[in-house]
Structure prediction request, 110 residues.
Amino acid sequence: MPSIPSPDRAPMRQAWRNEQGSVTIEAALALSSLVVVSALIVGVLATLAMHVAAVNGAGAAARAHAIGEVYVPARGQVTTTEQGGLITATVSIPAVIGEVSASAVFPVEN
Prediction:
């Protein structure tokens, strides 16, 4: 014999079965997730671009210091050390995600 719902529970069961508005919520969650993922991708790409700039800057700083020139990078900070006839230049650049740094070694020219 089937059970007959009590009058006080019938509206509650209908509310659970009503899916009106669920598509709007799902779309909002999906779009916000896409925005977050897109922002992360852009941040990672910008950080990778800063890493490439740090590598190029370190190489340029090491070459410049090896021939006696002063190198001033467009952004970031350069530290150079000389040991055993080799110049080591390290460039640190602030990026979107942390700070990137790169080093380059170049022989001293006489």
Notes: The chain has two helices and three strands. The chain has a mean pLDDT of 87.
